[in-house]
Design goal:
Strand content: under 5%
Structural class: mainly alpha
Number of strands: 0
Shape: elongated
Helix content: 55-70%
Radius of gyration: 22 Å
Distance between the termini: 57 Å
């Protein structure tokens, strides 16, 4: 069963969204519905880490690098 949903958004944002929907060949309602469906399928913060993070986990173990070393690196890089 479909229900009506009213959203209050900035006019500029609405124009951009409608333009994007037109280019995509979809209605604005379809885009919003697809986005809402994605929200439910995205992993939560407490779920498994991404494959890249999993590969990097523990890579510095035993290297002697600590947060002070990283802070010093960032200060040299950006200051």
């Amino acid at each position: 069963m479909q229900s009506k949903l009213t959203l209050r958004l900035d006019e500029k944002l609405i124009r951009k969204a409608k333009s994007h929907a037109r280019r995509s060949g979809k209605s604005l309602s379809q885009l919003v519905a697809e986005y809402f469906a994605l929200l439910d399928s995205r992993p939560s913060a407490a779920s498994e880490p991404t494959p890249t993070v999993s590969k990097l986990r523990g890579v510095l173990r035993g290297s002697g690098v600590d947060t002070d070393d990283y802070r010093e690196y960032l200060e040299k890089k950006y200051l």
